[in-house]
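Assess this one:
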Amino acid sequence: MKIFIKAKGLRLFLYIPYFLITKRLFKHVLIKSNFEVNVQLDEISSLFLKELKAFAKKNRRFVLLDVHSKDNEKVKIVL
């Protein structure tokens, strides 16, 4: 996964390998966003991550998010 951020005075490029996106990290992000975590979430998150990796493998350079603001700031997430 690649994340591009371009703002006034800031240019950031992040590359996140898929092996770092784990069920534990996914659960941690949901807890930080005040989302209730239960047992079913563990099963769903593992299926979601498995499908995300398979989708990214089949569809290289798929743009998941592409946002441009009036201030010429850009955010782009590519699988």
Summary: Strands lie at 2-7, 10-15, 63-68, 74-78. The helical segments are 23-32, 39-58. The two ends are 5 Å apart (CA to CA). The chain has one domain: 2-78.
